[in-house]
Amino acid sequence: MKRELTVVAVCFMFLVSLAPMALGAQPKPLDKESAAKLLGYMGYTKVSVAAVVQGIGGKGIAVFSSDAVAMVIAVGVRNDRETEINESFLYDNELGWFCYEFKMDHGRVTVRQWTTAGYREIAVER
C-alpha cells in the first residue's frame, strides 16, 4: 500500500507541476516570508530561511523542474529540537504555494495540506 501511495504522490506532483504551464499562467515566485509562514503551519518554530530555489523540487525519489515548484532550505525548531529543513512546495492557481503529504490511519487515506492560509485534511467522503 505504501508503494502505491508513493506512485500516486509522484504522479500527483508531476501533474500539478505541469498545470500552470498548460494554462499559460506563471506563478508568483515563493518568497522567504511565505516559505517561513508555510513551515510555521507545518509545526516548525524559529524558522530561518536560507534560500528558496525556484524551479526545482522533489518528493521522495522524484525531482521536478518547473516554475510551479520551489525548494526551501531552512533551519528551525520542531518538537523542541533544532533541525534542518529541506521542503518542496508546489503552486496551484487556486491554493497558491502549498505542501502536502498522504497520511494512512486505520485503513483510511487522507491528504494533509499546508498553504499560506493554514492547514487542512482532505479525505474520501463517506
Q: What series of H and E elements makes up the topology? A: HHEEEEEE
Record the strand order, biggest sheet. Answer: 1-2-3-4-5-6
Task: Name the overall outline.
Answer: globular
- Please give the count of helices: 2
By secondary-structure content and strand pairing, the structural class works out as alpha+beta
Separation, N- and C-terminal Cα atoms? 20 Å
Which whole number gives the mean pLDDT?
Answer: 84
Low-confidence stretches: 6-12
Helical content stands at 25-40%
Give the strand content.
over 45%
Q: How many individual β-strands?
A: 6
Produce a short descriptive summary.
This protein has helices at about 1-25, 30-40, and strands at about 45-60, 60-80, 80-90, 95-105, 110-115, 120-125. It is of the alpha+beta class and about 130 residues long.
Give a written overview of the molecule:
The chain is of the alpha+beta class. About 6% of the residues have low confidence. It has one domain. The two termini are 20 Å apart. Helix content is 25%, strand content 54%. It has a six-stranded antiparallel β-sheet, sandwiched between helices. The longest helix has 22 residues. It has two helices and six strands, in the order ααββββββ.
